[in-house]
Amino acid sequence: MIHRTWDTIVIGAGAAGLSAAQALGRSLRGTLVIDAGSPRNRFASHMHNVLGLDGTPPAELLARGRAEAERYGVAFREGSVLAVRDRPADEGSGSPARVLVELDGGDTLEARSLVVATGIADELPPIRGLARHWGTGVLHCPYCHGWEVRGRRLAVITTSPLGMHQARLLRQWTEDLTVFTAGLGELSDEARREFAARGVRLVPDPVTEVVAGDGAGIAAVRTASDEFAVDAIFTASALVPHDGFLAELALDRAETPMGSFIAVDPTGRTSHPRVWAAGNVVAPAATVPVAMGAGAMAGAAVNAVLVEEDFALAAGGPTGA
Ligand SMILES: Cc1cc2nc3c(=O)[nH]c(=O)nc-3n(C[C@H](O)[C@H](O)[C@H](O)COP(=O)(O)OP(=O)(O)OC[C@H]3O[C@@H](n4cnc5c(N)ncnc54)[C@H](O)[C@@H]3O)c2cc1C
């Protein structure tokens, strides 16, 4: 049973969702944030390259963001959204279109608009010993963690031809770089020459294991025939957006080298007139500040559309889809 129509439901309380919620709360919009509680960077102890918050624990940023949003009247609810459906306008009663949000536990909520900020899942390469170091000794983003391991013995374990970019990038942070090239496919002579000229070691054999050190750190990368001592590893996960619950809306998608993502315009608006999306769920390369910016933009864009709808409703005119 529907008890209330929210102006906006924000799905996901990471950097993107909380920024959208803050913008909407400060716009006096009845806003509910629903969150499953698993932000992508929960494996890392500290965030970097986040202006004004460098070195802050990820959970601290989210707690502060939530407290700020609550100050502006935003409501929060724990849970997972299982599905989103359209509720078309009812011309008989004059009721405009809505979106219906189905939660685990069985409740269905109703909103005039939706901001999807559910992030992505990182599917890690299936290498023995790798997953336990994700976010500590196994990293993906040199802008987030490169400074902390600069000058150390670094490895890049490539997982696809896109790994070429990461392999070249990491040379900026160390002169002691080993690239495990099995994921790259056949290397051109030119690529080999360039790596050699920059003093980068290339190892073609597939990696079989990440070997832990005595403490919590990494000791080595192992192949079938050899072992290479390293201090940290960079690699790329397969990126899986948390957007399956939107299937029924059949939103337009963008096919990118990093995968298939819901298509959005610069304000985060999807092909559905009442649904916006922001952060990693639509922009896999977005870091925390980029996700925050996208969320703030989506929040303002939602409010602008609701303002127009408020005028149209008051004047008895059409209210869009
Ligand atoms: C190990 C690691 C370290 C990182 N370090 C940094 C760093 O130092 N600096 C930096 O700028 N970036 C860093 N990042 C990137 C950072 O994690 C992302 O940029 C950021 O989390 C994106 O925010 P978001 O709001 O889009 O998604 P998220 O932060 O992932 O938030 C999404 C939220 O939505 C919830 N959710 C998902 N599905 C549902 C559903 N169906 N119903 C309800 N809720 C749902 C999730 O539980 C989660 O709470 C790191 C990433 C990783 C993996």
Automatic annotation (TrEMBL):
Question: Residue ranges of the FAD/NAD(P)-binding domain?
Answer: 7-295
Q: Does the keyword section mention Secreted?
A: no
Task: Write the record's keywords in alphabetical order, separated by commas.
Answer: Flavoprotein, Oxidoreductase
Swiss-Prot/TrEMBL catalytic activity: [thioredoxin]-dithiol + NADP(+) = [thioredoxin]-disulfide + NADPH + H(+)
Any GO MF annotation of the entry: thioredoxin-disulfide reductase (NADPH) activity
Task: Return the protein name.
Answer: NAD(P)/FAD-dependent oxidoreductase
